Automatic annotation (TrEMBL):
Protein name, per record: Carbamoyl phosphate synthase small chain
InterPro entries, per database record: Anth_synth/Amidotransfase (IPR050472), CarbamoylP_synth_ssu (IPR006274), CarbamoylP_synth_ssu_N (IPR002474), CarbP_synth_ssu_N_sf (IPR036480), Class_I_gatase-like (IPR029062), CPSase_GATase1 (IPR035686), GATASE (IPR017926)
Annotated gene: carA
Annotated spans, CPSase: 1-243
Role according to the record: Small subunit of the glutamine-dependent carbamoyl phosphate synthetase (CPSase). CPSase catalyzes the formation of carbamoyl phosphate from the ammonia moiety of glutamine, carbonate, and phosphate donated by ATP, constituting the first step of 2 biosynthetic pathways, one leading to arginine and/or urea and the other to pyrimidine nucleotides. The small subunit (glutamine amidotransferase) binds and cleaves glutamine to supply the large subunit with the substrate ammonia.
Biological processes, Gene Ontology terms: 'de novo' pyrimidine nucleobase biosynthetic process; 'de novo' UMP biosynthetic process; glutamine metabolic process; L-arginine biosynthetic process
Domain Carbamoyl-phosphate synthase small subunit N-terminal: 21-160
Record-annotated active site: 318 (nucleophile), 402, 404
Length: 427
């Protein structure tokens, strides 16, 4: 079937002659959009999703949860504040980005602005995309595209250059069948303490890792001893170490690690399928990540093992909400077109408190499948879907939205305070 003749053929207002190459966005339902290329020239395919935030393209492009997706921005003017520098902190974390590189397959915009101006910009979006070999399309009627995705639901799409014949092949499997988490998760164990970080091998026995982590703690404590506040809540005086959060990296955003470190805990980041149950830690954190949570069974099994310690604080964000729910026996389903924006309203169940949240997810926990030990913690005010869960007795909770924001509103950052208080042993 020739999909291009099958459906709408949508041409947006032409860009001035001489700009990027002509390029088409082909949707799985046969719709074709015509635009101009910017960034890197490459044919790519993936799940086409839309994000209605007005800002935040550097953070969204580097959010590992966008792996495998073509990111449509509905805000029409994109690129006008350029791109911040890719500087890295002493602990190896990017200063302004959410990971080490762009994870979205492509960016789709209405009107790419070549001119940019911002106190922190060092290059244009076009130059950054070229450097990272990621294609962009401009001149697309992104509101029309979004209407189609809202009606039909998200679907696979492909970018094809007008001067290249379309092979007719997608070149990638269906989005939901690919384990993207495995692609984006770290490969080593990385411990972050203060401004330091230490890479450890996943093959080392737990006893050796525990000893290496203790050495790191002693070093940090000695380094800080001049200014050490002995009343600091995070210092465990019995074990002479800081409180430790074990972070399961399903594609963690940098700002989650920053938010934890800011609260004075040591963060031990492990690959998504690593069995951390022999390590010493005081709290378990399960991160955001791309793709279908049903591809992450190893992570669910490890969470179940950790749950044998009923007093262990557990906190999850986004994919972490879904994996914690699965570990508790609940089911996940795919939303029609997901929540990707800076203005998703959620209500804290049992209260009249409503928060405006930053979101990026396509799947959701089915509230009806939570067993009697669990209850919804937040509910989306637009569509009633689950936005978080909590265990009725144990210190286990999670949010479907992004309390770390980056980008977006920071109103729910208090959830990190709540978690770290539990880790410190009190509430
Ligand atoms: N940001 C995330 O962690 C997203 C979780 C999952 N991949 C979803 O789309 O629902």
């Amino acid at each position: 079937m020739n999909k291009e003749n099958n459906k709408q053929n949508l041409t947006s207002s032409p860009l001035p002659a001489g700009e990027g190459k002509g390029v088409r966005l082909l949707l799985d339902d046969g719709t074709v959009f015509h635009g101009k290329s910017f960034g890197y020239e490459k044919t790519v395919a993936g799940e086409v999703v839309f994000n209605t935030a007005m800002t935040g393209y550097p953070e969204s492009l580097t959010d590992p949860s966008y792996a495998g997706q073509l990111m449509t921005l509905t805000y029409p003017l994109v690129g006008n504040y350029g791109v911040p520098p890719f500087t890295v902190e002493p602990n190896g974390l990017a200063t302004f980005m959410e990971s080490g590189h762009i994870h979205a397959e492509a960016i789709i915009v209405s009107d790419y602005s070549e001119n940019y101006n911002h106190w922190n910009a060092v290059e244009s979006l076009d130059d950054w995309l070229k450097r990272e070999q990621v294609p962009g399309i401009t001149g697309i009627d992104t509101r029309e595209l979004t209407k189609i995705l809202r009606e039909h639901g998200v679907m696979m799409g492909k970018i094809v250059f007008d001067d290249e014949p379309d092979s007719g092949q997608w070149g990638v499997d269906n989005y939901g069948d690919i384990n993207y988490v495995d692609r984006v998760s770290c490969k080593d164990i990385i411990a972050y303490a203060g401004t330091e970080s230490l890479h450890l091998s996943v093959d080392a026995p737990a006893a050796q890792l525990n000893a290496q982590l203790s050495d790191l703690d002693s070093r940090i404590l000695n380094l800080n001893s001049g200014s050490l506040n002995l009343n600091s809540g995070s210092l465990d005086l019995n074990s002479r170490r800081k409180k430790r959060v074990l972070l399961v990296d399903c594609g963690v955003k940098t700002n989650i690690i920053r938010c934890l470190l800011k609260r004075d805990v040591t963060v031990v980041r492990v690959p998504w399928d690593y069995d951390y149950n022999g390590l010493e830690f005081d709290g378990l954190f399960i991160s955001n990540g791309p793709g279908d949570p049903d591809t992450c069974d190893a992570a669910v099994q490890n969470i179940r093992k950790a749950m044998k310690d009923e007093a262990l604080p557990i906190f999850g964000i986004c994919m972490g909400n879904q994996l914690l729910a699965k570990a508790g026996g609940a089911k996940i389903y795919k939303l029609k077109y997901g929540h990707r924006s800076h203005n998703q309203p959620v209500r804290m169940v049992g209260t009249e408190r409503c928060f405006i949240t930053s979101q990026n997810h396509g799947y959701a926990v089915d509230n009806g499948t939570l067993n009697e030990d669990w209850e919804p913690l937040f509910i989306n005010m637009n569509d009633g879907s689950n936005e978080g869960i909590r265990h009725k007795r144990n210190p286990w909770f999670s949010a479907q939205f992004h309390p770390e924001a980056a980008s977006g509103p920071t109103d729910t950052e208090f959830l990190f305070d709540d978690f770290v208080k539990l880790v410190m042993g009190g509430f």
